[in-house]
Design brief:
Layout lengths: L10 E7 L5 H14 L4 E6 L9 E3 L5 E3 L1 E3 L14 E4 L9 H10 L3 E7 L11 H7 L2 E5 L1 E2 L6 E2 L1 E4 L15 E4 L1 H18 L1
Parallel strand pairs: 1-7, 1-8, 2-5, 2-6, 6-7
Antiparallel strand pairs: 3-4, 9-10, 11-12
Length: 197
């Protein structure tokens, strides 16, 4: 379990993993701990993520916290006020300015906590996540349970194949898979694509 460091400087924390691995749950847990410590917190999410609620960050287990939806990562800077802790959910959906925004906040002694998918449904690093992972002082990779074999899952498999990288969905569209089951599923998809040609 992640234990908050006892330093007075700003830093970046990234919580990453596949879908259904508890990333948002962990983000909310850390934000709530900061609130208990009477720290000023604000949490953001991408405006496009309206799966559960337009304004709240909601985990798959229905844990909720108020947030500010923003269209672009630089919009975060307009809403932080005197926050000591900034949470950002679904970081992979933000534009490539997000790492710069997080660096600016950390340099202003703000603790920045991000949660996001590290890879897309093709197993490719997703959006700004690779940069954020390399810049972060603290990285936590969480895992789900493979929906095929019950093993440790680190991949998000898209059950209905199309090339759309950003496609909001839940268990109807995605499932967590281990490396072996993910690769087997991708091999089936590649075979189907060849047959369709």
């Amino acid at each position: 379990m992640f234990v908050e460091p006892r330093i007075e400087k700003g830093w970046i924390e990234v919580i990453c993993g596949s879908m259904f691995s508890g990333k948002t749950e962990e983000l909310i847990r850390r934000i709530n701990r900061a609130k208990i410590a009477h720290q000023k917190v604000v949490i953001f999410k991408p405006q496009i993520d309206v799966r559960y609620h337009e304004r709240k960050v909601v985990s798959h287990n229905d844990t909720q916290i108020d947030s500010i939806p923003v269209a672009k990562s630089k919009d975060i800077l307009d809403h932080i006020g005197n926050a000591e802790v900034v949470g950002i959910d679904e970081a992979q959906f933000f534009d490539m300015n997000l790492p710069e925004v997080c660096n600016l906040l950390a340099e202003k002694k703000v603790r920045v906590i991000l949660a996001g998918l590290d890879m897309d449904f093709k197993g490719i690093p997703f959006g700004p996540m690779p940069l954020l992972l390399s810049m972060a002082e603290y990285v936590t990779k969480v895992h789900a349970i493979c929906m095929q074999c019950g093993g440790v899952a680190g991949y998000t498999f898209k059950r209905i194949h199309n090339e759309q990288t950003v496609e909001l969905g839940e268990k109807d569209l995605y499932e967590a898979r281990c490396r072996t089951c993910f690769n087997e599923g991708m091999a089936v998809i590649r075979k189907q694509i060849k047959m369709d040609l």
